[in-house]
């Protein structure tokens, strides 16, 4: 699995101008079965996306489609991890 950490690198006004396009992108990735969960950081400095296991190159390609990435308003850090424990029922999201 992956955790994508987004950090805003531009003012919030520029981020907010792209928020609807970013949300549409998220919905597409949920519908395609790539994303498990997402949300913004508090304080509002970026966000987090939990991503199902796929080849890293594919995950990177998917993240590059995000309007935040394409406009250069967010920087991404991609963390890959192997599950060793999980809440019962979470396997439905793998």
Automatic annotation (TrEMBL):
Question: Superkingdom, according to UniProt?
Answer: Bacteria
The family database entries (Pfam families) matched by this protein are listed as:
YCII
Family annotation (InterPro entries): Dimeric_a/b-barrel, YCII
Coiled coil residues, start to end: none
Gene3D superfamilies annotated for this entry? Dimeric alpha+beta barrel (3.30.70.1060)
The name of this protein is YciI family protein
Organism encoding this protein: Roseateles flavus
Could you say which protein family the record assigns here?
Answer: Belongs to the YciI family.
Annotated YCII-related domain ranges read 1-82
